[in-house]
Amino acid sequence: MAPMASKRRSGASGLDVSTSTTDGVAILSVSGTVDLLTAPDLARHIETALAEAPRAVVVRLDDVDLLASSGLRVLIQAHRSAEPTRMIVVADGPATSRPMEITGVHRIVPLYPTLDDGLAALQE
Q: The STAS domain covers which part of the protein (predicted)?
């Protein structure tokens, strides 16, 4: 099945989210800043993706330059509310994976360094 994509900008807040679906997996590609101002927008994007009943949800944070504690909280809450749908995060860098690892969020929300690694894990 060919990927389907849409892009939604969350206003002047500095958060962009592109959504695509491939093989029943919703992939949210996030860029910009995830902080107190934009975290609710990210939560809404994840909720919208989950409402489509995908097989899994992937939140890509590759192009995020700041992942604040409010963003970490959104990821934890979304992961818990997603069940039984699997939700993972793809992030690799000091602005994204490092805060997840330092705070232990990666023990709650599965974290993968690349999209290929994350998609492979969803096949298991």
A: 15-122
